[in-house]
Amino acid sequence: MSNHWTNNLDMPSSPALSSLWETMAVTFSRAITEASIGHKTQWKVLQPPTGSGKTEGACLYAALQAERNEALKGFARPVGVLIVTRLIDQANALASRVNELCARTVACARHSESTATADQAYASDVLVVTHKAFVDAAGNIGGASWQKLTEWRGGARLLTVIDEALANVVEESRVTLQGLGFALGCVPLKVAEDFPGQMKALKDLISALQHQATDALNDDGVALSLLWTEGSKWENAEVNTDMRHLRAAMRATAYDRLTIGQENGIHRNRIAARVDCTLEGAQSVLERWAFYARSGAEHSVNSAALLVPDGVPGAVVLDATAKQNFLWELLPNRAEIVPIRSGARSYRTVNLHVARARGVGKSSMEKSFAKRYARLLEALEGRLGTDRSVFLCTHKVNEHVPKTFQHRFARLEVGHWGAIDGRNDWKDFDTAVIFGLPFLDRDVWATGMFFALQGVQDEAWLEAPSWQGHHNVRTVMHQRQMSVSIIQAINRIRCRKVIDESGGCAACDIFIILPADKVGDAILDDIQADMPDTNVVPWDFELDGPQIRKPRAGSSHDALITLMQNRAPGEVSMSLVQRELGLKPKGLEKLRGVLRDCGHPTTRALEQMGVKLVTHGRTRGAKTFLVKHEAA
């Protein structure tokens, strides 16, 4: 790897990097040996920092293993490799990279968009799949989908390399009292008669949730309470918790005529998806343990389950943020943290500009985003030159707004939480701005995660969730999950690339607004721990100061494309478009003209995502909408 890194990639090496690559190779080899003799061992978790060649090293090891298989054909057992990565584009790139390193076709990417056949995957020394495909198949180890991933012409694959921690490794199930009532009301009489056991289960679930909701309101608004510890509570002759056949029968329901009295395909599909999701969630909570939660006026029953059981062959996880990822602390019997040498990276040329404020979560940011963004843009333009390239990370609901503002930078691009991890789109940018933080529903998310990984706890734990010296482990889990997401976002820009022997990078500026409390302090500590030598610079930015008037004359076309990309299928009124894009009446009329032009690039881009302009009525009272259809 050292020779490949310096001679083929023209990248600077160091003793720390060489030690890291050696640890990776030894860990891969150990995992193969243990899998080959049938040992069910812990997952081996490595934390190679971003930019240290972890993915390239995995591809090189896989290519060398394929070469070894060919050289020792007939004399030694061949070793098949499974590589698991986040995204489809990454799967394609990794398979191509392995083939390039091997100078022949030994790797195959298999996913929903690939043309590779099952036979090609079976014949390949190296198979590359996405996190989602892996998790879906792992839910039924021994099933056909799992065998297609782990079996090949050489027998069982002996090494599974998981690039970054698996997304959605815990399945969360949640149904609300309102959602259950709505779904039950949508079941036609004939269907209800055909599925009496399922209907009884749903009615009993509603009754249990109503009872708990009443108790919560009478008991000073208790937010969390254990409902049952195992699904067997519901097993009796009258109740059937298996909703699969009911869900299938419900797919023929004309929800549009049932709810609005007329045909409307978009409305029908939206209601169908809502009902089906509720029934699926109901089965999950009925068949597992469950807890009650109240958030405002919403009452819900919740459960969760670890989707990846024992039995993954030779699993090695390459997780750049393993130090902060609380998942591994909750899986001590399944995961072995492999120590690596420190000093592979230095961020001494990175300036981390830190401001503090309250109200940086999704709801608060959405309410005042345009006003706050105008202040942010003025502050950034006062500090940065016009030659800078800026990556802005924010919430999905606000992603379109920055595109409506003019800016003086060479480039300014926007991404949103949940859609940036692992991406290389901004790898050459010199500035990252974290504007709004990815808060989760702390109590519900952390309780479900903890129960799924550590087992169901009692009512006393729900009231005082201490664990392993943590006074409130839910708070720690939530904060650490935010730290992981923030560190991932920061490392989308060029600080990810090593340029010298000390592991340094080109100069970068990071701007972030952290909570003005202990959570903000802990996040800052985590960033510094994962990015050693970073220069922390106080930033006197005031999030909610006097209003700044900035020209909103950016591209309404780009902003509209992003707005519709992030919207669910359905109708969007032009008045909402005007408000979201900050358009004046004249600007709205110009945009209408563009949307009526079928050949305009913006119209074509919208059509590709299933969005069309529709007018209801012919008189002066006619109303115009953008309608987004379900993806094919």
From TrEMBL:
- Xref: InterPro entries: P-loop_NTPase
Tell me the Gene3D superfamilies matching this sequence: P-loop containing nucleotide triphosphate hydrolases (3.40.50.300)
Q: What is this protein called?
A: Uncharacterized protein
Organism of this sequence: Rhodopseudomonas palustris (strain HaA2)
